[in-house]
Each structure stands twice: as C-alpha cells, then as structure tokens.
Amino acid sequence: MVNHVWGLLTHPNTEFKEIQRENESVSHLYTHHVLLMAAIPVICAFIGTTQLGWLSGDGHAIQLDMFTALYTAVAFYLLMLAGVAVMGKVIHWMARRYESRPSLHRCMVFAGYVATPMFLSGLVALYPVVWLCLFVGVVGLCYSGYLLYLGIPHFLGIDSREGFIFSSSTFAIGILLLELLLGLTVLMWGYGVWLF
Q1: What DSSP line would sit under 131-187, residue for residue?
Q2: What subcellular locations does the record give (predicted)?
Q3: Per-residue DSSP letters for 20-72?
Q4: Which of 40, 89, 174, 187 is the most buried (most CB within 10 A)?
C-alpha cells in the first residue's frame, strides 16, 4: 500500500521520477499513503502517552487518560491530513509563475510524499521522552526538507538554483504550518482536559 516509502528513504531521485510517471490522484494518495502514514505518529503517541506518559528530564511522567488521549489523537490526525492538503495548495500557489505549473492535485500528491519522513519520525512517540521526540522530529523535518529540495526542480521542471529558492520558501511555510498544527493540538488538549 505504501509502496514509495522505502524508495523515498533510500533513493529519492529515482522514486520521485516513478511517482511523477504514475500520475496518482489525490484520493488514491490519501487512501493508500497519507491516511496510513499519518496514523503512525497518532497511534504511537496514543500508546506512549496512555501507557508510559510524557517523560520529562526529572523522571516525572505525565500520563493521559484514555479519553483525553483519544480526543487529542483524533484532533491531531485530522489536522495532519488537512496540513498535507494545505501544503499542496501552497506549492500550487507558489508555482503559479512557472510555465510548467502542475495541477493542484499533483501538488497535493507531491506534498503527501514529502511529508513521509515526518510521519515516520512519529514512531519514537511510543517512548515519549520530550528530548528524544524533539530530536527525532527535527531529523524527520530535515529529511522532509531534503526531499523537498530534491523533488521540486524535477517536479516543476526548473533548474536546481531556482528550485533551491522555491524549496526554501516552501520549507519555511511548512515549518510555520507545523508549528500551528502543534499549537492547535496543544490548545485542544488543554481545553479537552478542562472540559471533560
């Protein structure tokens, strides 16, 4: 089902060419890739926070009850799915000045595959130590940025110098979007704790 994951991690240039040849639809991407990959950090965080709790440096664990963890997990899952769509729209909007401007659905497919390393970095949430989750999350974010830098020139048919500028702008917007998603999740978790 998630047939491009290994290729994106081991030989991304070749894999991006394969993805481009497939001309995959947004619905196929979501049902066969994004829905599954986005579930990895959600399920891992749910298990980690309900069984072990968030472990801080002083050894104190903040364990979530099942209802609060489920509420937060569902909210974060929906926000991640929306985040991929928003990044696809950002790429489409930023590509408006290029002659080979890809369609919106191709931009969303591209964004979904670029987010793969970030989704995979969520595996560490099974053992939710704050510093470890932060470190692995940054590694996943950096590899997603690397995929963006590699893929944009091929995707838009532009030279690597111009692709670097485009990728840098897109990456910055992606980081802001990620911070917004994390902030919204924390807010919902905080209100969920107080409401229920």
Answers
A1: HHHHHHHHHHHHHHHHHHHHHHHHHHT--HHHHHHHHHHHHHHHHHHHHHHHHHHHH
A2: Membrane
A3: HHHT--HHHHIIIIIHHHHHHHHHHHHHHHHHT-EE-TTS-EEPPPHHHHHHH
A4: 174
pTM, rounded to two decimals: 0.85
**Which residues constitute the domain of residue 65?**
1-192
Q: Of 35, 34, 49, 33, give the one whose Cα is nearest residue 124.
A: 49
Phi, psi of 186 (to 5 degrees): -65, -40
Are 4 and 35 in contact, with CB atoms under 8 Å apart? Answer: no
Residue type at position 43: I
Token digits of residue 56 = 């801080």
- The amino acid occupying position 147 is L
**Closest to 179 (Cα-Cα) out of 141, 125, 126:** 141
Per residue in 143-182, pLDDT (tens digit) is 999 999 998 888 888 888 888 888 998 999 988 888 887 7
